[in-house]
Amino acid sequence: xxxxxxxxxxxxxxxxxxxxxxxxxxxxxxxxxxxxxxxxxxxxxxxxxxxxxxxxxxxxxxxxxxxxxxxxxxxxxxxxxxxxxxxxxxxxxxxxxxxxxxxxxxxxxxxxxxxxxxxxxxxxxxxxxxxxxxxxxxxxxxxxxxxxxxxxxxxxxxxxxxxxxxxxxxxxxxxxxxxxxxxxxxxxxxxxxxxxxxxxxxxxxxxxxxxxxxxxxxxxxxxxxxxxxxxxxxxxxxxxxxxxxxxxxxxxxxxxxxxxxxxxxxxxxxxxxxxxxxx
Length: 279
What we know:
By secondary structure, this protein is α/β, with parallel strands linked by helices. It contains 11 helices and 11 strands. The model has no long low-confidence stretch (mean pLDDT 96).
């Protein structure tokens, strides 16, 4: 089998996904700016191309003889909006343009849906990212651009991920920056790294998924009260009376992934991950 190109292999998702793909005997090529950060993956057989995602010639070299692309690279918190535009939208468009003859798995986010539906968000819903939120806006714009390319032949598969956690990722602890300010009963829909891994593998291997989008999350969103408890904190009593405008904001319907991909969470709840020592 020809290699699969992975971008973003030094990020939180990538560093946990790559070992899972290698254990599944997927031949990998990694596009990274700093090859030293992926030496452990290279020692296990990954091919490494050094360079920037925005460099056309580097990207062309990385795509040579590649069967598929898993595009994880993204600019997130703590960077200017212009950088998010450059990475999340423009670099993604360029990568996809150069990948037209290949399978293209795009890691998006459930944040693209925004609030206001009164039910869990479904894959065919209009994307309405919150105004002023550059990360979900640029991810939604990238999805729109990729879907347009898919109408012209790109074998696109999109994963809209819940809040990714587990395997020592500090994301769960970082959730407190919001959870402390939320109503006690506001919920967060999460997904463990192990389940991101199985979803990506299925998207790479299953035939007939062109232009398909799937919500990927676990079976039991957790409340702000639970997030604090998981982090050994107690949410203040005033949180119980904070108003909650949309109890369904951020909650996704995952039935399509179950029906079409055969997706079943390895960790259906954060508590099962906790019991397994996988937080």
